[in-house]
């Protein structure tokens, strides 16, 4: 079976990528022959030179020898206006109807046709099967504003299926202004962005999308987010390709992540405790139940039933409070001072991070022994080094003095 050769005209210059020969420089007006189509990149032949160029730089055209013989029944692009998509299918020809049907996800019971290379018994999961199937979808037309064209390809990812209720103008990278960068990983970068038309804030996650393995990974992430969408998960708003990345537009969670929140809570509790100590008062019962969170996310320290003013001495010679938040030295030396509060706060922060007590034991004696042996639970690796250092210093505050008093 002979494959029909397709030709495309270059609509704007592309200089390639310096130092990477797989990307082919092209100039406006040149005619290239298509070898392979992907979502973002087309592999083309330009006078014997083969390389990748951005799909957005190309526009389909008739073969050079047939410039004056364009037949309506041989055109492989069929334009569909935005108004037609929105008002129904009665105004469309059968070809257009078939194109719109491609938008609707296939039902689970749909079978693969005999020409597919993957059988119903293939071990590949549903996502991989759908990705590898040859499928026709519609995409924004590059030559006609507010129109869509039919594209046939061997790889069409989920996010590329435009939904009827999805606004095409939201699927453009230039429609967003980058406010700041949140962070970067091995395969993605995350930014706070503002939608230029509305001023809405979103998070843009740019995921690698050049190699086939990148595409499989990114499309699976999109499919997973769509499948698990709920009030408990970050919402995926839109997704679209840009250069060598897939851009995921996500809802913006103004409160930040858990790591940021832990730092904020930690700093506020420290300030509250410092305020008490600056007035010569030891709280003596620092625990989660006595730390209160206000509507505006500020912290307030409460329950001063056991608090005491130290006055002219640097400790209070009576141990009271909640035992699991007492330092072992409080049990041993029967006195409480400012360090008692600091130790208890260190335990609270440790619990806030890990959900467990750093020296939890079955008895006071066993707890004292764990502290003397510096046998605390370990903070997770993801905890920032600065926070880890501070918390560890707080829960070991008594260690040196206790050992020196018991040698």
Automatic annotation (TrEMBL):
InterPro entries: Kinase-like_dom_sf (IPR011009), NEK_Ser/Thr_kinase_NIMA (IPR051131), Prot_kinase_dom (IPR000719), Ser/Thr_kinase_AS (IPR008271), SH3-like_dom_sf (IPR036028), SH3_domain (IPR001452). It is an enzyme of class 2 (transferase). Residues 3-63 form the SH3 domain. Its EC number is 2.7.11.1. One of its GO terms (molecular function) is protein serine/threonine kinase activity. Gene3D superfamilies: Phosphorylase Kinase, domain 1 (3.30.200.20), SH3 Domains (2.30.30.40), Transferase(Phosphotransferase) domain 1 (1.10.510.10). It catalyses: L-seryl-[protein] + ATP = O-phospho-L-seryl-[protein] + ADP + H(+); L-threonyl-[protein] + ATP = O-phospho-L-threonyl-[protein] + ADP + H(+). Keywords: ATP-binding, Kinase, Nucleotide-binding, Serine/threonine-protein kinase, SH3 domain, Transferase. Residues 176-407 form the Protein kinase domain. It comes from the Eukaryota. This is non-specific serine/threonine protein kinase. It comes from Streblomastix strix.
């Amino acid at each position: 079976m002979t494959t029909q050769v397709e030709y495309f005209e270059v609509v704007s210059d592309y200089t390639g990528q310096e130092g990477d020969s797989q990307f082919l420089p092209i100039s406006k007006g040149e005619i290239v022959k298509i070898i392979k189509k992907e979502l973002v990149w087309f592999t083309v032949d330009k006078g014997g030179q083969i390389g990748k160029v951005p799909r957005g730089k190309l526009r389909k055209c008739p073969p050079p020898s047939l410039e004056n013989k364009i037949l309506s029944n041989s055109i492989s692009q069929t334009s569909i206006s935005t108004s037609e998509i929105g008002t129904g299918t009665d105004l469309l020809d059968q070809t257009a109807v078939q194109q719109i049907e491609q938008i609707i996800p296939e039902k689970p019971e749909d079978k693969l046709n005999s020409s597919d290379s993957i059988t119903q018994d293939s071990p590949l999961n549903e996502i991989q099967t759908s990705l590898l199937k040859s499928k026709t979808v519609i995409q924004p037309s590059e030559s006609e504003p507010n129109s869509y064209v039919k594209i046939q390809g061997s790889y069409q990812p989920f996010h590329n299926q435009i939904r009827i209720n999805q606004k095409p103008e939201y699927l453009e990278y230039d429609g967003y202004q980058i406010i700041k960068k949140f962070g970067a990983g091995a395969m993605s970068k995350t930014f706070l962005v503002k939608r230029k038309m509305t001023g809405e804030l979103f998070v843009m996650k740019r995921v690698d999308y050049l190699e086939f393995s990148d595409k499989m990974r990114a499309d699976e992430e999109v499919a997973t987010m769509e499948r698990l969408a709920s009030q408990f998960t970050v919402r995926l708003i839109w997704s679209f390709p840009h250069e060598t990345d897939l851009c995921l537009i996500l809802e913006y969670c103004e409160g930040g992540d858990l790591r940021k929140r832990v730092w904020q809570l930690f700093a506020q509790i420290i300030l509250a405790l410092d305020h008490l100590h600056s007035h010569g008062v030891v709280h003596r019962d620092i625990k989660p139940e006595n730390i209160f969170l206000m509507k505006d996310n500020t912290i307030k320290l409460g329950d001063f039933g056991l608090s005491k003013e130290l006055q002219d001495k640097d400790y209070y010679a009576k141990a009271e409070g909640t035992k699991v938040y007492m330092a072992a030295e409080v049990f041993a030396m029967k006195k409480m001072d400012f360090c008692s509060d600091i130790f208890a706060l260190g335990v609270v922060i440790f619990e806030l991070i890990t959900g467990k007590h750093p020296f939890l034991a079955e008895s006071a004696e066993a707890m004292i022994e764990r502290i003397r042996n510096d046998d605390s639970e370990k903070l997770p690796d993801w905890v920032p080094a600065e926070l880890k250092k501070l918390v560890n210093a707080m829960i070991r505050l008594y260690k040196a003095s206790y050992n020196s008093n018991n040698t």
